[in-house]
Amino acid sequence: MIKIGRLKLSSRFILAPMAGITDLPFRLFNRKFGCEFAFVEMINVRSLSYKSKRTKSMLDTTEADKPLGVQILGAEPQYILKGLDIMKQYDFEVLDFNAACPMRKIINRGEGAALLKDPKKLHGLLKLVVEHSDRPVTVKIRTGWDKKSVNAREVALYAEDAGVKAVFIHGRTKEQLYSGKVDYDAIRAVKEALKIPVIASGDIFSPELAKKMFDETGCDAVLVARGSMGNPWIFRELETFFKKGVISPRPVKEEIFRVMLEHLNSFVDYHGEKTGVMLFRKFFAWYTKGFRGVRPLREKCSTAKTLKEMEILIGKFKESKESIVEHRIHSHEMP
Ligand SMILES: Cc1cc2nc3c(=O)[nH]c(=O)nc-3n(C[C@H](O)[C@H](O)[C@H](O)COP(=O)(O)O)c2cc1C
What we know:
α11 packs antiparallel against α14. The strands form two sheets. Strands 3-4-6-7-8-9-10-11 form an eight-stranded parallel β-barrel, surrounded by six helices. By secondary structure, it is α/β, with parallel strands linked by helices. α1 links the parallel β3 and β4. The structure holds flavin mononucleotide. Flavin mononucleotide (FMN) binds next to loops.
């Protein structure tokens, strides 16, 4: 069991916040496969303060979508306070503060991973959030800005001092973005320095890689991020491996087909046909990863506009003679 403030979790596998991915249907879908705790997409407090419809819709949730974490992004106290005030009416259990996002436009505003360069400023902002939030506050960091300035231990100590209840750490620097080696040593240094739980992120694509993360860092839990894209089975596989020591075989084509259709329909129900089909395009590629000869179908899929068109392509995938060539997913291209 892991405790984040008053929240108790029985699973050590958490669905990571992913902008453009972890919307309500995606979270519900992963929960069906055993995900216990999930995060919404990152919420920009400035947009929330301006009552942006799109930002508010990211906070949509349901009874089945619990327990839930919300992640905020910002660096200006007035917007952070306004955002926290608006969020009081929403139902979620944990409030995470983003000090990890490497996107240029975010860094240029002094937000996200830019805060790793100024741990004292981050400390001040976290104290403000802790003081004004009625829910347990956490922070998500990276190992540092670049390989010359790995400072996660110092940043995490500041965060603990500010009163956060857990630290999420992506084991890469801002410079690395999403590729290159995960720095297990930097995560272990954070774990050894803190009393609060440390939840690690980076290349959790399989039970073996999750085990490596636990063994090498001593972390309390892990975040599943790209490993869940087109692969909701990962939550079941992780639980099975850690409870029974058994590596599950990859799902058969028939099962992938069934789940793809269900996923597509849940997107269309929530987003409407046009957006739901468009959002599903990248998932088609992820679900069919590791199968030989699916490129022509993927190409067609990238222009599919209607539910019917997409269903036909999924049907063709099922009927194709191609079998799987890659049994374990060890990496994932960025969307
Ligand atoms: C498409 C995408 C969007 C992401 N958005 C966020 C985000 O909004 N907030 C955040 O803290 N991390 C975000 N991340 C980072 C993940 O939470 C995770 O830390 C990172 O992908 C490393 O884990 P992985 O190697 O297992 O994918 C995002 C990652 C991806 C791939």
